[in-house]
Structure formats: C-alpha cells, structure tokens
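Example 3.2
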Amino acid sequence: MSPSALRRHIGQLVFLGFAGPTIPADLRSLAREFDVGGVVLFKRNVEGPEQVAELAFEAARLVDDVPLWVAVDQEGGRVARLRHPFTEWPPMEALGRSGSVDLSRRFARALGRELRAVGISMDFAPVVDVLTQAKNPAIGDRALAADSAIVATLGAAIIDALQSEGVAGCAKHFPGHGDTSVDSHLDLPLVEHPPDRFEQIDYPPFRAAIEAGVAAIIVAHLLVPAFDEHLPTSLSRRVVTTELRTRLGFENLILTDDLGMKGCAAQFPAPVAAVKAVAAGHDGVLLCDPDPAQQAAALEALVYALEDGTLPYAHVDASVARHRRLKAMFIRQGDEARRPSAAWRNLIGCETHQQIAAEMRSFA
C-alpha cells in the first residue's frame, strides 16, 4: 500500500465508541475521513434487537472500502451490553464450576447466533484471566476459574464455538489480569510477578486461545516491572511485540483495552497513548469514550506519527492487512449483508438458549 493510501487507512487501526442509539454525524465524518476500523457498542447504544440490527447494519457500512467491525463486550454476568429480550447469561465462573466443555460450547454457539443475528461481528470475550486473587475487583466472577488448565480448556472451547457461528472472539486481558487488587478502569494495577510465573500460570490460556484460532487478543493496562518498569503493558513493546507477537507466536489482531481507562488515561492522553500503542505493536486501539474531539485528535496524531516516521509504514501496512484478512472471514458481505428478515427475532432469547442459561445457573 502506498504511503498516501496508508495515511488514509491508518484509521483501520481504531475502534470508536459513540453516544446514543443512532450513528451520530461526527462519527460518520471521522469514518469517511480516516477509514475507521470499527465501532464499539455499549448499553448507551442499545434499545432493542431491531434497533441494534439496524444500527449494526449502518455502522458496518460507514466506510465504502472495508466494512467496520461492530464490536461489543458480551461476556455474561455483569459485563453484558445486550439485555432482555436477548438471553441473559450467568457469569463465566458458572461454566468454570461446571467444568463442562460441552456446556461451554453450547453457550458460545448460542451467544454467537444471537450476536450474528443482529449484525455484531466481534465479541470482546472470553476473559481468559486466571483468578488467582479472589478479591480481584476487575475480574472476579468474569473469570472461568482459578485453575489455569480449566481456563485454557474452556476458553478454547468458547472461542472455537463462538467463531464457528461467524463472530470473531477476543481473548483478554494479556498478559494476565487475574492477580490484581486494583481495577484498571480506576488506576494502574501493579503486578510484581517474574516472567516465569506468567509462563506457568497466565500464558497457558492465551496459548490455548491462539491454538483455537482466536481472532484477537486484548492487552491490559497493568504495570509489570519484570517486563517494563515505566510503561503500562498496553503501551510496552516488550509485552505486545516481544511476548505476545513473538514469544507466543500470535498472528492475528492485538488490541488495546480502552485507552480511556484510568490505568492508561491518568498518565497518557488518548492521542499520546494511541501512538505509543501502535508503536508498541498493536493492530488496534480502543477509544470508547464518546468524545469526537478527543477521537479526532488521536486519529490526527496517528497520521502525524506515520508521516514523521514514529510509526513504520511496514507495521501499519501489516496491521491493515490483518484487519482485512479477518474481516473477510467474519463480516457479512454481498447478499448476506442484507438486513435480517423478521424470522431472526425467533432466535433472540429463544427457549433453547434460555435452557442453556438455566443449566449454567445451576452451577452458579
């Protein structure tokens, strides 16, 4: 891709949040100018299945050249943007207590069917952190288990089943958020483990996710002095490139956690963080705060960093290629991209899915 084309396409590396149940004019403008790569839906964007389907249909088509990712955090339990009449799933610790690969797969297939029915192409799930700190305020019941082997086995099953339904999965939060006593939404957690502890406890679920073909991995905002004494893991080249890309051999999308979280934003404004994240090796940055001025500033900063050589063209070109390859796998195109017929409504919160949720609750 030529340098001039890359300057326009660098927006492919950015996911944006927005306010309200419809696409605002400022998001349309940013998408056209920068070829934005994706949008992230929150509770503030959701009114019901029909509205989400229409919103996702329009969002995916904000850019003519490459469809946008339409992403959501739909884990189950307390982290679920889509509520009734969508199936409301128990927290993932229920699956861990069940120990059942079959139940995990049935859950993920049902989840994937409902998401795909309303046009969502990426789910920021599953959490594959190993809950070694029982009072962890950020993870808690979002984790499958405190046993690395259980998390690895069930996490891989969820990823495989979710993606078999046409929704890109996203394992999180690398290099491992399971042993923290601080919520990275509010501050930067300190994790003082040596590298071999990550290798033994935290990495096996991520290795299993990679083996399962997970489309993306999210990197957490943590301070791990064994890897980097100065930068959060989300902005550290040692973590993103040396550990995840090279050591674990991950070839798909590496994404930041939301750059608006205090674990990052308290020290680095969004434009600075976005450039540092891509320089560290990320393929995508999440700007979920619905502030169009801040989002535009971050996009401009990425363009300037590409122009002044801070960001290598080769890296951005490779990241854009990864997005295009995975979008071809997971985003509906052609005739399949038409708005769903009324028949899809029978899938949302259907009896079969409710029965799976009830079975999961029996282990809660």
